[in-house]
Structure prediction request, 610 residues.
Amino acid sequence: MSSKYKMLEELGLDKPALPMKEYKKMSRREEWDYTRNKYPEVPRSFLAHIDYMRRGVRLTEAAWKKVQDPYYAKGPRTNFQWSHEVFTEEIGLPFTFFLNDGTNVAVEISPSDIGDPYIIDVIDDTFWVTADGEKLDEIDFSEAPTYEKEGKKTSQGVPLTYLGWLAGKGTLLLVPNSHCQYWNTGDQCLFCDMDYHTRQAMKLGKGWKVRLTGDDVYELITEALKEAGRWQYMVMCGGSTTQDGFARELRHNCELLRAIRKAGEPYGDYRVPVSLLATALPPEQMKEYKEAGADAFGVYIETWKKEHFEIVCPGKNKYIGYETSIERAIAAVDVFGEGNVVAGFTEGAEMAPPPYGFGEVDEALNSTLEGWKFLVKNKIIPASTNLCVMPGSKFYRMGVTEPPLEFFVKLDLGLYRLLMNYWKGRLSADQAGYKWQPLSSYVDYQRIL
Amino acid sequence: MELPKEVAKIINDPKKIKTLTTIDVEGNPHTVPIGSMAALEDGNIAFMELLETSKTQRNMLNCYWFKKNVSILVVDDWEKGDVYQIKGSPYKFLFQGPIWDKFLREVWKIIPAADPAGVWLIMPKEVVNQNYFLRRKHEEERRANWTLWQTLKGTRPGLGL
Prediction:
């Protein structure tokens, strides 16, 4: 291997990847077999997690029908979903499914105009992921929380399912604001489809709340916590509000955090903790978040190389900037404690063609892992969401496609080795654990740290 | 294979001791007692893993992913030497549904502060009664001339020789 990929050599990832054009020649099965044979030490379910998201799934009519059973969690929200125009009008869409070992996979409905998705079918009354007529994985969808099964609403008549989104088994994703103000000036991150998706959902009359209030959240969490043995923590993540130097965003998030804390008061030490993913603010404002009830914080840098960040995340670059984002992530460790700060990435954005990314696997990996090494040494855990190119995003309009399977396998393995090398499994960012974060494949390694 | 009824009965007796042995990525065994072990009606065995990050949990995942068996020891009568070894393959890890709900209720009766990770389902592949006399008979039949070459000759105080 060329000495220019020192980071890959350091982490024992120096079996060279192929040039991108070679992956594009492979069929789904060929690419799977190539990657599986090359990395026999990586569990099969890790590859399945990645590939079921990157290629997407389609459900048969039987599977759609079975998943409408009230037993299964469904929500009106279909964020980061393909083809939502087709699937959300009358059908409830589940967010995640589990493989037999508990691996939590986001349901990414594949567009009808993109080939080779996996098929979810019902065989002998059981859900299965299949491909080319072959049964691959027995799966199940998340069980609905009690408040969903009982059709509970707030005192204002808003269904609780409109307020929080079950992410996996025991975590609610609360989206304070489904509108990101970077979209107002066309400065949204190039992979993001948030506002496009929100507009679609509003047209469908799904009625979810675009902006949550403290009262909404208090009622939701109060009701949710009545269900014993269900909940581990909550996650708050939404669009940015740039007004007044993000003061409005700070106030809004604190309002919701206080509401969650208040709902948890009767339970003492068993109150539910909150992981907040929001704009990176100066330390004194991070402390306000901590005091309001945030137990962990995520600074989303999205892509490591500064030149890529500047054009892939123009809004974040304009309002915060690359170096400031990293400085604030480091400062946040003193506020929230080691292991409680993540730096978020869209894993795969660095594979966009130049000038937005590197375009080739090993070059992209080497850069990202160099950056992740820096973060890990500073007790910040890289946490990522696998890139799925969505209609409504600028990447989609540019024709960017998902990276190869090998890219994700190597990157996740690299992060695992970094965490073991530096922290021997002690630091893990469990606030973004496998039971809540179906959109990320790296979380599977957290189970064996 | 179907779990023999008498073995299932022992597993479901909360007073009987049960252990679980798993192996890690390097092939090292790890044995722990399991209080929650149960034989299900479908013939499979289940137990509730109490710690998400435990060595046993990491090993169970290793065994599941790389198709290694685990070993369960069930002590029926220690003095009589009636102990069963069950080898099986982990095939599902549950943290929702009726099996999870039932195990959680039972565990919380005994350890209310527990924060269980999930319930493992294990498919039994082989059941062996580890009673000395049964094992010996098996070896005598398996290996030619066993009693001729494998026994201790001469003085045997317990037998009056």
Summary: Chain B touches chain A at residues 52-53, 57-58, 61-62, 64-66, 91-97, 101, 104, 108, 118 (CB under 8 Å). Helices of chain B lie at 5-11, 55-65, 98-110, 132-142, 146-149. Residues 139 and 146 of chain B are 7 Å apart (CA to CA).
